[in-house]
Model the fold of this input.
Amino acid sequence: MKFGNKSIAALALLSLINFYSSCHVAGATVYDYDHVDTWNTEFSGDNGNCDGRKQSPIALETMDCTHYANYEMNQGDCTLDGMEFEINKNGVQMNWKPDLIGDCQLPFFKIPVNAISDDPGSFEGGDTYVHAQTHIHLSSEHTIDGKYFGAELHMVHLNADSTRASVLGTMIRPVLPHDNPTFEQFLKRWVDVMKSDGCDCTDHYTFDLSPNFKLDVYENMEGKDFYHYDGGLTTPGCDEIVWWNFNTDPWNISVRQFNILVDVILKYKPKDQNGVCADKPQTNASRGGSTSRPPQPLNGRKVLKICSFS
Done:
């Protein structure tokens, strides 16, 4: 199918909305990151799939390329103003606004199934996935060669009928001596949420925003190599419906930006409908500040490394 038509993109956005109201239950399920070892029993059977055989995240290992192919990525023509920014219990998130339907084309990408599948026509969910939302966990969920990173970003995409998700994932690494311009734009909007909907003073946060900024959704994804495997959502109910595509190169930000990200996720105290401040931060982070599930058993699954021709 083609996503060059805005009416098709509109149908895709409706599917994304329906998917997240029915399937992605993290917002409605009570859980925390100090007791992730109980998820496989607490969220199983009628309560979820966290005891399944294709769980995520996993421990990734440095490996040679198994396939050579390029992921096709299309930016669409939606702008940053078309996104809603939120702070939730397990991190920060940005979603496309529902009223965008028909107004612009959402970003989408294609898994190179012809290169990696013996039977491309039966590849579960097809090859094309439309961007639904992006969110960040503190402390990485996946590991690479046993190493954790400061945070992990997930770009969640869905196929047109919402039967399958595909995530572009990447580590976030706070090593730059200067600010990352794109991340600065995102961070400013999360702090704006903290200022308008929360109770914490944010006046000490200042931002240097480029007046000519243009959103590049796939800034750290195009032309990269990816680990590819069959897995699931990393929050309860852990639905096993995700094609994971994990970038081998971290997205670098500044130490300052990382410190603000940590503040936003761990310190945010929302106001209730009467304007009364919460008595403690809303996060369900662990005592150590993590909002990440640890790596799960591979259980015989194959991990591919799809390397770009570039």
About this structure: Residues 54 and 231 are 5 Å apart (CA to CA). The mean pLDDT is 90. The chain has five helices and 14 strands.
